[in-house]
Design goal:
alpha+beta; six-stranded mixed beta sheet; 5 helices; 10 strands; 27% strand; globular
Length: 182
C-alpha cells in the first residue's frame, strides 16, 4: 500500500470536528488493550462483550481518535443489553432518537441515554454488547472497506493514553476505527 493511501484516512479523520488527536495504534498497545478488554464486566457482574473492539482489531488498520464533545454522535447505539435468549432488553438512546421512546409506555428510562424494555425478561446470562458502529466518513471512495468504529473500555482507553503519553482528561473520549485496504 502506498504512503498516500495510508495517510488519506488519517487526513480525513483528523479533519473531523471535535478530533483532538488521531493516530494509528501499534501491535504492542493493541495486545495490551485486547487482554484488558477480555476482563471487563459491568455493575452487577454482568458480562460485557465489546464486539466492535474485537472486530476493529481484526482489520488491517486501527486508528485511535481522541475526541471532545463537539465530535458527532455515533450513528447507531454503542451499547445494547441482551437477554440470555438473544432479545434486546435495553439500548442506548441519543437526543436524535429519544423521540422514538418518549411516549412509549413499554420502556423504562434508566438514564437520559439508556432505555430498558421491562417486557423482555432475562433469567441469568444477560450481557451488554458493544456492537461495531458504522463510520461513514471512511469508505471505498477514500480507499477503505469493512470500516467499523467502537468505543474501548475506560481501562483500555487509559492503557492507550499512558502508552502514548497522552493526558487523561475526563472531558475527552476515545473511538477506535478499524478498516481494511480496498
Amino acid at each position: 500500500m502506498s504512503k498516500e493511501t495510508f495517510s488519506k484516512p488519517m487526513e480525513i479523520v483528523k479533519g473531523l470536528r471535535g478530533v483532538v488527536n488521531a493516530f494509528y495504534l501499534d501491535e504492542e498497545v493493541l495486545g495490551q488493550m485486547r487482554k484488558e478488554e477480555e476482563k471487563v464486566t459491568a455493575m452487577g457482574n454482568i458480562a460485557v462483550h465489546n464486539e466492535g473492539f474485537n472486530q476493529a482489531l481484526s482489520r488491517d488498520h486501527v486508528i485511535a481518535i481522541v475526541k471532545d464533545p463537539r465530535f458527532r454522535p455515533p450513528p447507531e447505539p454503542t451499547v445494547v443489553l441482551i437477554s440470555n435468549a438473544g432479545e434486546v432488553m435495553g439500548l442506548e438512546v441519543f437526543p436524535f432518537t429519544a423521540k422514538e421512546y418518549l411516549e412509549r409506555e413499554d420502556v423504562v428510562w434508566l438514564s437520559d441515554a439508556f432505555v430498558l424494555f421491562p417486557d423482555v425478561k432475562g433469567s441469568g446470562g444477560e450481557r451488554f454488547i458493544m456492537p461495531p458502529v458504522s463510520f461513514p466518513e471512511l469508505n471505498e471512495s477514500n480507499g477503505c472497506k469493512d470500516v467499523i468504529s467502537c468505543s474501548p473500555a475506560p481501562t483500555c482507553d487509559l492503557i492507550m493514553r499512558k502508552y502514548y503519553d497522552l493526558q487523561d482528561d475526563p472531558k475527552l473520549a476515545s473511538v477506535l476505527v478499524g478498516y481494511n485496504d480496498l
